[in-house]
């Protein structure tokens, strides 16, 4: 049996398409399922069986992406994959809208897990890693379970940490939410505490999503307080307009917000071990603020889990603020690899400020899997041996966008798509000479929508904040596209033809861009302009690169000459043919486009 990956589906604007909608078979919403297939040809196709014991610690997006890439390898069969996680695989409880939205969503949502059927090809060990025996290649898991490995992959990441302001003691009903089980416990406690206030402490997006979840439980808003620690130079949204709108939503909900407060002590300093929480004291500037509360939810700071750090440190792996890895994600032990926000690259790469948490988690997991596949895939190993061993080490290139989605107080749906980059304040980033322009629509009924188009006419950031339903699968595909693909977005905006980006991207012309095969069509066009029709004549791409070698600005005369040569060549006809071929091949999903011989 061969397992099949699920395809990203277009979210169709049915109301705008009229009679040109796809068939009901395509539009019908079905229960998510995993698909396995077998036929006569597949039974005769050999697969290489890999018996190596590969153990992954941590059910983060990086770890799950690593396991997914290995399990869907077309000609390899890994039959000994193990995942160690305190809660096992996520999203194995019954669906619950409040629970599912209490923390910001990652790539591996409940639906994604159901499409993958991870339990069928991964062994799951529930527990925390407490020790690593590198000599015998054994991982110890609480409570006293030992798991042997041939390759150990650490994807523990970072978690919100329990605050310890007072002699290392914490009263009852203080919660730190990092996973589904933590959220369940906090929700049950909030339901049982009919009286008393709930304090949410932190300035991360998770603090706002948890407030929305608490209000959705029916808790009165005046019982919920948001206390923010001393502010950093970057807000969690990094957009002044979004900050203002979220703050306004909290005011309309009568949620009290305390800013610039540092946690000092519990219960006025009269804390008894095992006692219940009654009050919390903060230092706000030079003033002391004491707030009564029965539940305290903390999103203050993130760090490495103590048990994981102790296991890493005791087995003498190099830890320099983060677990140190090389370009192949290897630690100081070649049998142990690591990735994610837990790690950083070795100092010899001169990239100290870059942690792997700055990149798309799913892409990091895939790159980690590709580095492992070179050790087990004979074809990949052959390519590796052909490389020049004397070449200097090069870090992997990460290109995918980082995507943040969340449901904020007031029912605001939030989406932020951004390139992998260091944390930079909004005002400082706009001063970069390649930043380009921001295009913003802010319609009362629709919501806030910001698109950043850089100096090279590429879409580099998207920020959406609305009370309407967000077509997230559609909007994330806009990242890194040239604005000309978007129906000449810049010129239309400057001419005043676009007043609402939400309605603009729901017009019928945009559906082809949201199709999952559109990227393949773009690569096909790129190959076309890169190929030489005559071996001795440079391709169109080579000519453009030569013109831009000394100056990134293309003169108008040279631009006109390139346009004229393109119009008079066969390339335009070939591009037109490939466009028609793309629309014809995907005609069942794109019936709203006219094609030759339709009438």
Describe what you observe in this structure.
It is a single chain. This protein is an alpha/beta fold and 599 residues long. It has 21 helices and 29 strands. The strands form nine sheets. It has a five-stranded parallel β-sheet, with no helix packed on it. Strands 13-20-14-15-16 form a five-stranded parallel β-sheet, with helices on one face. The chain has a five-stranded antiparallel β-sheet with strand order 25-26-29-28-27. Helix 4 (61-71) crosses helix 11. The longest helix is centred in the middle third of the chain and has 16 residues, at 361-376.
Number of domains: 4
Tell me the Rg in angstroms. 27 Å
CATH class of the largest domain: Alpha Beta
Dominant shape: globular
Distance between the termini: 44 Å
Search tags:
FAD/NAD(P)-binding domain; five-stranded parallel sheet; 4 domains; Enolase-like, domain 1; alpha/beta; 599 residues; single chain
Quick structural overview:
The chain is an alpha/beta fold and 599 residues long. It is built from 21 helices and 29 strands.
Question: What's the helix and strand layout?
Answer:
Blueprint: E1 2-4, H1 14-17, H2 24-27, E2 35-37, H3 40-43, E3 48-50, E4 54-57, H4 61-71, E5 76-78, E6 81-85, H5 97-100, H6 110-116, E7 123-126, E8 129-133, E9 138-141, E10 145-148, E11 151-154, E12 159-160, E13 174-176, H7 180-192, E14 198-202, H8 205-216, E15 224-227, H9 240-252, E16 256-258, E17 261-266, E18 279-284, E19 287-292, E20 295-299, E21 302-303, H10 306-314, E22 323-325, E23 336-338, E24 343-345, H11 361-376, H12 378-385, E25 402-408, E26 412-418, H13 426-429, E27 437-443, E28 447-453, E29 459-466, H14 472-475, H15 489-494, H16 501-504, H17 511-514, H18 518-530, H19 540-547, H20 556-568, H21 571-585
Parallel strand pairs: 3-5, 4-6, 4-11, 6-7, 11-23, 13-20, 14-15, 14-20, 15-16, 22-24
Antiparallel strand pairs: 1-2, 8-9, 9-10, 12-21, 17-18, 18-19, 25-26, 26-29, 27-28, 28-29
Helix pairs in contact: 4-11, 11-12, 18-21
